[in-house]
Amino acid sequence: MSGAEISDGISCRLLLGSDAEAAFAVHCAATSHLSNNIVRRESLEFIREQINDGFVVGGFSGEGDLVAYAVLTVSNSATHKVADLLEIDPASRKRFCLFDGVAVHPKWQFRGIHHALIAERMSYARRLGRDVIGVTVSPRNFKSLKNLLGTGFLVMQATLLYGGYERLILVQNLGSRPEGGLTRVKAVALGRFEESVEALRSGLCGFEISWNEQGQAIMHYGSRS
């Protein structure tokens, strides 16, 4: 992976402990204008632990500056918590991993870096034999939702996490790609969290996001035809 180009002249490699402060600076820059109900605030120590314990890929500019990073974990407390919420059986947990954070410096956003880091982590998950991937996303984080849904993730659960904040849980099973598409059954404004909870409890899954004439973000829930 070292030196591989992922997007717009950005190369990537796994981060080292010595990269923690640069990653924390990217995180602070990317989240400074966002509220806690959209992104989870991380400490320098937590980011250092993620780098030491998991797979954290960094995106570097041609000048060698860290401009983005993304996390994949296989065995921390968040991974186990999400696996519990998804009711993943013990045998399948050996195949489960979690996308546990991403940040792109504001000066480098809208260049496809986030999308590329999703693909990079999916590739690494396959190599680890972790082909069931989960990720938690705020229903107000439209950019992340759109990127994840566009790469095959589906909304499978909705709950309160990280101290009571609304989160959608998206899943992709790389080892099982069902044939046929999803049929739209219900459209829910992403500001109406309880309606998303009800749609998911009824057996539907979220698979597409759009915007209505009033500018509201809409999640489309459906089922296999």
Task: Tell me what you see in this structure.
With about 220 residues, the chain is an alpha+beta fold. The protein contains 7 helices and 11 strands. About 30% of the residues lie in helices and about 35% in strands. An 8-stranded mixed β-sheet has the order 1-2-3-4-5-6-8-7, with helices on both faces. The chain has a 3-stranded antiparallel β-sheet with strand order 9-11-10. The radius of gyration is 17 Å and the shape is globular. The model has no long low-confidence stretch (mean pLDDT about 90).
Question: What coarse outline follows from CA principal-axis ratios?
Answer: globular
Q: What topology, given as strand order, has the largest sheet?
A: 1-2-3-4-5-6-8-7
| Biggest β-sheet description | 8 strands, mixed
Estimate the strand proportion: 25-35%
Mean pLDDT across residues: 92
Q: How many separate helices?
A: 7
- Report helical residue fraction: 25-40%
Rg calculated over all Cα atoms: 17 Å
Q: Low-confidence spans: pLDDT under 50, at least 5 residues?
A: none
> Topology as H/E string?
EEHHEEHHEHEHEEEHEE
The termini sit apart by: 39 Å
State the total count of DSSP E strands: 11
Structural class, from helix and strand content? alpha+beta
